[in-house]
Each structure stands twice: as C-alpha cells, then as structure tokens.
Amino acid sequence: MPEGHTVHRLALDHSKLFAGQRLKVSSPQGRFEEGAQLLDGKTLKSVEAHGKHLCYHWSGGTLLHVHLGLYGKFRLHSLPTPEPRGQVRLRVIGKERAFDLNGPFTCQTITRQEWMAIQDRLGPDPLRAEGDLEQVWVRISHSRAAIGSLLLNQSVIAGVGNIYRSEVLHLLGIHPETPGLELSRKQVESLWSKLTTLLRIGVKYNRIIIAEPKDIGKPRSRMNRQERLLVYKRAACSRCDAEIESWLLGARKVFSCPKCQLR
C-alpha cells in the first residue's frame, strides 16, 4: 500500500496537471459510471491529501474520494489516450494529459461534510500544515500498545506505512515493541520531527529515502533501493552490522536491530 509521501506527491502532480481545467470523466470499467457522469464536464479546483486519502475538489461542490488500498494504481497518459488497460475504474482527460485509476479500495463522490468526517477519523498528517504534535503525544502517551503498532494506526499518525515505521524507529533507537506510554515527550517529538523530514524527502524524490547522502557517497537522486533504506528487508544493520530481526507486529512484518534498538 502506498505510504503518505506517494499520496501527497499524487495530489501535487494532479493539481499541477489538471486543476483549473474542465475535464472529461468516464468509467471504462463501469463500476464508477454514475459518479463519472456527475463529474464529467466539471472543473477540477484542487486536489488534497490527508494520510493515504486523496480528495479531488470540483466545481459545484462535489468531491471525489480516492483511497488506493493494496492494489490501486494511477497511470498517467499523454493525448490521445490509449485503449483502457485492465479494469479502469476512472479515466480523467484534460487539455494535454490524462490519467487512469485501476483497482482502488475507494473511488466515490462525497460531500464536504463526509470528507470532514473522514479527516476527523484520521490522526495528524506530518505533511499537512495543521498537523498537531500535541494530539499525537496524547494518543501515544496514553496507549499500552507497542509503538510499532501505533505507527500503523492511521488514527494516531496519518500516512505512515510499514517501511517508514521500521526505518524511523531504527533511526531513533526505539524498539518496535516499546509501549507508547513508555516513550518520553522528547522521544515522541523526535518521532514526529523525523517523520516530517523523511516524508518531505519522499514527496520531493517520489520514493522513500532514509540514508543520508554523506553516508552513501552519492546524492539521493542516484541511490538505489538497497542504499536508500537502512533496516527494512536488510540482512544486517547499516550501523553495527548486527543481523536484522523481523517479526509480525500490527499484522505486518517489522524490521529491527537487536543492538541499536534495545528493549
């Protein structure tokens, strides 16, 4: 499932390429036909992201809510558009570009009130200006759940997925099984700050990059996958060379160094 940086990058790209245009909207697959008819010919005003959720704001007040889930994928096209590939739930055509959406978990028209209700269920997003550290602190510090599980809970922090949780805990030397209420205020502040920095880097380069250029000896734009990550799916710790441990936590496999992240 795409993590928050990917969704925010999509919001930026789609705003840049399609906002302000009267768009042609269709559902080649047919499953979104009613919604496509409602949006067809309307002007896209803006696109925003909150965590892993996208919201497209259209003229007339209609909103389109998209959550990619495990299998959702956008494909960007130049004009003229190619024949639909696979089960295309949504096709949007602008003046110069178009995009298809295949296999999303959610693709539906909603009201502004419904979008606000979705946001109310989500935790603060480090990439949004109104992200509230105090709310994060309260939710973590009052929980007996492991921090590794809390980071996957979108009502605690929105946008963090399996890779970012393993990597940020490794960077801060926090064991994934540490209960939230055992973390200090300083640790939670560092967690929020580091996630904000890493997610912003992810948006800029459109990929998760944890390693520092000075440590790898090359710029972020030239790092390969093995170089970009420090602990996720690695055999040995990039810091101490200890064998990385992995186990299921929050229904996903977490990765941790037994020496750098003591419990």
TrEMBL record:
Pfam families: Fapy_DNA_glyco, H2TH. GO terms for biological process: base-excision repair. GO terms for molecular function: class I DNA-(apurinic or apyrimidinic site) endonuclease activity; damaged DNA binding; oxidized pyrimidine nucleobase lesion DNA N-glycosylase activity; zinc ion binding. SUPFAM superfamilies: Glucocorticoid receptor-like (DNA-binding domain), N-terminal domain of MutM-like DNA repair proteins, S13-like H2TH domain. It is an enzyme of class 4 (lyase). Gene3D superfamilies: 1.10.8.50, MutM-like, N-terminal. Residues 2-100 form the Formamidopyrimidine-DNA glycosylase catalytic domain. Residues 230-262 form the FPG-type domain. Belongs to the FPG family. PANTHER family: ENDONUCLEASE 8. This is DNA-(apurinic or apyrimidinic site) lyase. The gene is nei1.
